[in-house]
Write a structure and sequence with these properties.
There is one protein chain. By secondary structure, this protein is of the alpha/beta class. Helix content is 36%, strand content 27%. The protein has a domain of 172 residues: P-loop containing nucleotide triphosphate hydrolases (Rossmann fold, 3-Layer(aba) Sandwich), CATH 3.40.50.300. It has ten helices and ten strands. Helix 3 crosses helix 4.
């Protein structure tokens, strides 16, 4: 078994007086793909945003419990800049910056102090290669990141995340706005990248979760109902609610 990456214990989350997550306990392992499934509004995306503290942007939000990343509590004296660098995020809709393809990828490394043109060139090429985009854009790096197709834009956002060398990549339904061919490319990419990265993905697509993840957590009404190896969750779930959701009886 791979090393423990995130150790989440007794996590409760409130928006004002409203509780959104209830006593979440989860072990997430290094260099695996963990899928978070469940109906809309069940807390998957909220939970995902606790892992890089994007949830902090909502002032009403209060958290109890602990989230340890590599043994350190990210809500206790943890450097937020380092956390966001170490835990990258890909969103539902591609969101390239309104700048060139090259500058989209170089932006993060520049922010973290890399000035050398040679070093930036190398990072941009490597990141675009790792995002399976280099061959498609290498002759048009000065083109706007907004001028390429939706699938390419999502892979550009992938390259942007990879450029700052994170160890974890969070994905909030990264293929829901893409066509089937672009979706397959992103899924192939996830499979390739898990050799080097810990990947946590929120998906509504049951087939996608079954195809790409090593473990799956089923969320319902802010609680984890079941968490196990993906094969077990999809073939022999231990909870009737999990079975009902996976077989399409609700949700």
């Amino acid at each position: 078994m791979n090393k423990l990456k995130f150790d989440i214990k007794n996590l409760d989350l409130f928006y004002g007086d409203q509780q959104a997550l209830f006593d979440v306990n989860l072990d997430i392992y290094e260099k695996e793909v963990t899928a978070l499934i469940g109906p809309s509004g069940c807390g998957k995306s909220t939970f995902l945003k606790t892992l890089n503290r994007m949830i902090d942007l909502n002032e009403e939000c209060k958290i109890r419990g602990t989230i340890l990343l590599d043994g350190q509590n990210i809500y206790d004296k943890y450097n937020l800049v380092f956390l966001r660098k170490n835990v990258g995020m890909l969103f539902q809709k591609p969101n390239p910056f309104p700048m060139s393809i090259y500058e989209n990828v170089a932006y993060g490394p520049k922010t973290h102090g890399i000035k050398s043109k040679k070093a930036l060139d190398e990072i941009v090429e490597k990141s675009l290669r790792n995002a399976a985009l280099w061959d498609e854009v290498k002759d048009s790096l000065n083109k706007s990141g907004l001028s390429i197709s939706g699938g390419q834009q999502q892979r550009l956002c992938f390259a942007r995340v990879l450029a700052v060398n994170p160890s974890v990549i969070l994905m909030d339904e990264p293929t829901s706005a893409l066509d089937p061919i672009s979706t397959t490319k992103i899924e192939d990419l996830i499979d390739e990248l898990k050799k080097d990265y810990t990947i946590i993905i929120v998906t509504h697509n049951m087939q996608q979760a079954a195809r790409i993840s090593d473990r799956t957590a089923f969320f319902l009404l802010g609680k984890i109902i079941e968490y196990d190896n993906t094969d077990t969750i999809f073939n022999t779930p231990g909870n009737k609610k999990t079975e009902d959701y996976i077989t399409g009886r609700f949700g």
